[in-house]
What does this fold into?
Amino acid sequence: PSPTLAVVGATGSVGTVMLELLSSRRNVWGEIRLIATARSAGKMLTCRGEQLVVRELTAEAFDGVDVAMFDVPDDVSAQWAPVAVARGAIVVDNSSAFRMDPEVPLVVPEVNREVAGYRPRGIVSSANCTTAAMIMAVAPLHYEYGLRELVLASYQSASGAGQYGIDTLHDQLTKVAGDRLLGSRPGNVRQAVGDDLGPFPAPLALNVVPWSGQLADLGWSSEELKLRNESRKILGIPALKVAATCVRVPVVTGHSVAVHAVFASEVTADGARQVLRNAPGVILVDDPEAGEFPMPIDAVGTDPSWVGRIRRAMDDPRALSLFVTGDNMRKGAALNTVQIAELIAAEISKRGES
Ligand code: 2RA
It folds into this structure.
């Protein structure tokens, strides 16, 4: 029989995209079970054209589950993923709870699908949304030219902070719309936006906020350390030098990253384009003269990472700059998790056949 899948966090903004993907991708699942905290239990949601009731997150909810996808806060994953494993499920977790655990593979299937099979804890972690978008372009270049250093600047959308982030941005835009003087004098955007900052530390409308996540070591943010540590783990380069600056921008959905990459060997823009043209899950959009750039308003709702602005550094033949953008709710979260779950479903089905 086809494996049973649980979606934990089914009622969240990423969970909603997971159900859309499960309804549109080739179906590999038997029963699909929707699980959420008690607050959401009892809701009816549609998946694969059928109405499903959301069950409460309990140990028994995992009985008979083969694969459980989690999109819940870190502390909920930390508590409940081991419970699901104890009940016989393999967990694919989209939180950061286990990403740096040496016994948990951190996977972006197009880049390192082979590590998903070694999971001594029965848990596989999916990469953070910003890492996933960026690594889709950087990994094929690493395999070709040997990556040594990354200097990154992210432009992260409001939906990275969930529906609350989206609602906050739209509310703030409504407050600033129509007043052409806003943004031209100190503090008047703050005044127009008022104290409704939502999940952000400062007004987002008509602004950029050079902060995402929580304060971590030595002034770096948790998001910046995720880009550094996750890139090292996924690419298997423990000594990779990474300097990231994560910035929140007034975009609804679509994370972008400006990438400066230094390689071991010489690289050319044309050579890099050729590599990326053949890379899985990447769309090349690189014709500045024609006004063609990778942008969140085009990438939103699509699966690939959109890559462009490819140019060799003026001062170093081993260095390349480029710009990548991707839908942080899809490849950045729901799609990557679903793809890993499908990898495991194929494993289970093959075992079942043998
Ligand atoms: C953000 N990457 O963008 C974080 C979590 N999705 O807020």
